[in-house]
Amino acid sequence: MAKDSNIHRIILITLDSLGIGELPDAKEYNDEGSNTLGNIIKALGGIALPNLEEMGLGLIQGAAGLQKTMHPIASYGRMAEASKGKDTAAGHWEIAGIIIDKPFPIYPNGFPKEIMDRFRQETGLDYLGNKAASGTEIIKELGDEHIKTGKPIVYTSADSVFQISAHEDVIPVDRLYEICEIARKIADSYRIGRVIARPFIGGSSSFKRTERRKDFSMAPTDETVLDRLNSSGLSVVGIGKIGDIYGHRGLTREIHTRDNMDGVDKTIAAMQKIHTGLIFTNLVDFDMLYGHRNDAMGYANALQEFDKRLPEIMGRLTDSDMLMITADHGCDPTTPSTDHSREYVPLLVYGKRLRAAVNLGTRKTFADIGQTIAEVFHIDRMRNGKSFLKEVFF
After folding, report:
1. How far is CA 73 from the centre of its chain?
2. For residue 27, what are the CA distances in angstroms to 23, 31, 35, 109, 276?
């Protein structure tokens, strides 16, 4: 625990893909004009997020269209991504202190023959697909053939992902996970960010992906703040896909979730049991269900659902807690692209013993969060990032 700040516990919540405006290099990523939050508000003619607004979300540059409270209860700012790319892993790794200088590779035309030959040889399976596609669309296209042949469906997206989809009655989920473990070893040779198991159920014309998705991520390339907290004997609880993102490293406990509201429930449950250390939650529905599917209304509704639950989280904070809310990249549902977008992300910092209404400005890197966590818990400084603890602590 922090000796001088009296902060014993940090609750860090990532609203997956809640970008708030294009970064200066957005043109290099074909993301000019992207602003996930601002464009959703503009497209819908407004959105009410009273609790996030009370914290100061509307005061952050780029969060246009929200109420600008005169007396925010939290400190607020925005962060730029210093890493190359706009991938989930890159964003989360940077939050934990790692800045990558080379983006994870993407395969818009499908994976090269050498990768797929290894997949065939090492799994003993042929495959269908091998192209960039929407996960829901490719199972519509190839689901019947998959059931007929037993071949898994392999596909990618605009992210660095090797996705394997299979009907649960054709390839049982445990077997699909085994196949993904093999694919993960292959993917490591090519720096592919994630291998994802995508099980589905149902019959022809009514296929539906299930909640038993599982990510197999490349292990972080350096020590993260999670590793250091764990090594220091502190609790590090990952909720949602946090464990998957960090290669199941640095965590004392992993808690998987069904959806955003289950993630909130499990965050609150963890707060009731874990009184020191870090509780780190990822709420993925914003990205997975709405950003990638260009569903601005669904995204807005999900934000309002979270906003309504925020008082429950804040009501369980003790005097020795710090709450941080941020994101890992953008995924603007109002643009033609269904890919992540290269954007600033919000930063809200709240605690009963912390200053309110401090404008934290534009941070140069997401790694400022990891550096702040390190300072709070008096562990060795991270290689990257600048702590904002002194700015928010009395």
Report:
1. 25
2. 9, 6, 13, 22, 42
Residue pLDDT, tens place only, 301-323: 999 999 999 999 999 999 999 99
Q: pTM, whole model, 2 decimals? A: 0.92
| Cβ-proximal residues to 28 (8 Å cutoff; 6+ apart), any chain | 342
Residues 146, 171: Cα–Cα separation, whole Å:
10
Could you write out the DSSP letters of every residue in 283-344? E-HIIIIIITTT-HHHHHHHHHHHHHHHHHHHHT--TTEEEEEE-SSB--TTSS--S-B-B-
- Per-residue pLDDT tens over the stretch 102-157: 989 999 999 999 999 999 999 999 999 999 998 889 999 999 999 999 999 999 98
- Based on the domain organization, do 259 and 175 belong to the same domain? no
- For residue range 360-377, what is the model confidence (pLDDT) as tens digits? 999 999 999 999 999 999
Residues 84 and 149 in one domain: no
| Adjacent-strand bridge partners of 208 | 201
d(Cα 194, Cα 187) in Å, to the nearest integer? 8
What is the percent of the chain with per-residue pLDDT over 90, rounded to a whole number? 91
Counting beta carbons within 10 angstroms of the beta carbon of residue 317, is it exposed (0 to 12), middle (13 to 18) or buried (19 or more)? middle
What is d(CA 89, CA 91) in angstroms, rounded to the nearest whole number? Answer: 5
Structural domain of 208: 113-217
Nearest Cα residue to 80 out of 388, 371, 393, 346: 346
Query: Is residue 4 scored above 60 in pLDDT?
Result: no
Q: Are 352 and 363 in contact (CB under 8 A)?
A: no
Helix (H, G, I), strand (E, B) or coil at 52: helix
Q: Report residue 348: phi and psi, to 5°.
A: -120, 130
Cα 228 from Cα 207, distance rounded (Å): 43
Nearest Cα residue to 327 out of 286, 298, 296, 364: 286
Same domain assignment for residues 267 and 369: yes
Q: Is 48 in the same domain as 179?
A: no
